């Protein structure tokens, strides 16, 4: 990927120097970079193109995570993209399964002579179905992904092995790459639009006279608290200042401007205040969705 490596090095340098601020910006730029990695990846002639694509994403992801291990959004987006690749491969395999006919004993000679569709035994077909439709595992997303081999390649090895199978493989490879790029684009849109659906939950999760602790500065948390205030909820917020950058001071100022009762505390005072709060608000991008984690005390 000669065209992508300069982008990877540049983003790694930004992560090391903390040039990208906020989980939203980090998550979005990580997703955009991985989309470029997928777009520029050359799909070779290996038997399992999805695994090769996942290996390319995983290699870049490991560099990004090592650049700033405490920025959780990076690792979560990498895992999300790896899951997308696996899902698209499973989807393609499921489509291949639908196009196969199961070999059964039949006295109808016409069917066996004229049915030119690839045929597999029931046992082979069932084995592929179990592998393809197996539930994804979060623990293996950064390890070797058990991406199922395409059914079309298995079928072609049992039947004709001419140029048609090769052209079919190329077509399915292009479709896999296109579908993964489109899915990552949807992920970027999801990151950009995550604030509104999260804010809609404020009235259900924040009750009257709540005491809330939040850490640093997060747009998601800010919009969430704004929504609760607009719904006439009465609550108080303690904001840890977030030294040495003191992002908590900025968030506190923004909350006060919206009429939210806010108090800035030092980071060392968090342990003393924790017994007084009802809820801790933190923003993060989990493995498969963008969400606001609310930890009830």
UniProtKB/TrEMBL annotation:
Residues 161-172 have a biased composition (Basic and acidic residues). Keywords: Cytoplasm, Initiation factor, Protein biosynthesis. Residues 152-172 are annotated as: Disordered. GO terms for molecular function: guanyl-nucleotide exchange factor activity; translation initiation factor activity. It comes from the Eukaryota. InterPro entries: eIF2B_beta_subunit, IF-2B-related, IF_2B-like_C, NagB/RpiA_transferase-like. GO terms for cellular component: cytosol; eukaryotic translation initiation factor 2B complex. Component of the translation initiation factor 2B (eIF2B) complex which is a heterodecamer of two sets of five different subunits: alpha, beta, gamma, delta and epsilon. Subunits alpha, beta and delta comprise a regulatory subcomplex and subunits epsilon and gamma comprise a catalytic subcomplex. Within the complex, the hexameric regulatory complex resides at the center, with the two heterodimeric catalytic subcomplexes bound on opposite sides. Belongs to the eIF-2B alpha/beta/delta subunits family. This is Translation initiation factor eIF2B subunit beta. It comes from Panicum virgatum.
């Amino acid at each position: 990927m000669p065209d992508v490596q300069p982008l990877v090095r540049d983003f790694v340098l930004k992560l090391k120097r903390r040039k990208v601020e906020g989980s939203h910006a980090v998550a979005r730029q990580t997703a955009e970079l991985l989309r470029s990695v997928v777009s520029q990846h050359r799909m070779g002639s290996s038997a399992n193109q999805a695994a090769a694509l996942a290996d390319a994403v995983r290699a870049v992801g490991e560099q990004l995570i090592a650049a700033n291990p405490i920025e959780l959004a990076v690792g979560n987006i990498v895992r999300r993209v790896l899951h997308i690749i696996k899902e698209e491969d499973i989807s393609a395999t499921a489509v291949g399964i639908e196009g196969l006919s199961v070999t059964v004993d039949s006295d109808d000679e016409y069917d066996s002579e004229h049915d030119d569709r690839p045929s597999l035994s029931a046992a082979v077909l069932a084995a592929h179905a179990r592998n393809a439709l197996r539930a994804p595992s979060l623990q293996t997303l950064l390890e070797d992904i058990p991406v199922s081999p395409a059914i079309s390649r298995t079928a072609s090895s049992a039947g004709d092995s001419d140029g048609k199978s090769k052209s079919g493989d190329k077509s399915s490879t292009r479709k896999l790459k296109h579908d993964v790029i489109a899915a990552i684009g949807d992920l970027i849109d999801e990151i950009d639009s995550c604030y509104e659906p999260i804010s809609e939950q404020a009235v259900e999760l924040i009750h009257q006279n709540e005491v809330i602790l939040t850490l640093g500065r997060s747009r998601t948390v800010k919009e969430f608290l704004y929504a609760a205030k607009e719904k006439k909820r009465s609550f108080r917020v303690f904001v840890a200042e977030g030294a040495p950058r003191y992002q908590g001071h900025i968030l506190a100022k923004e909350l006060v401007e919206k009429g939210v009762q806010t108090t800035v505390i030092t980071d060392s005072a968090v342990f003393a205040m924790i017994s007084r709060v009802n809820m801790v608000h933190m923003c993060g991008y989990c493995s498969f969705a963008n969400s606001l984690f609310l930890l009830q005390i």
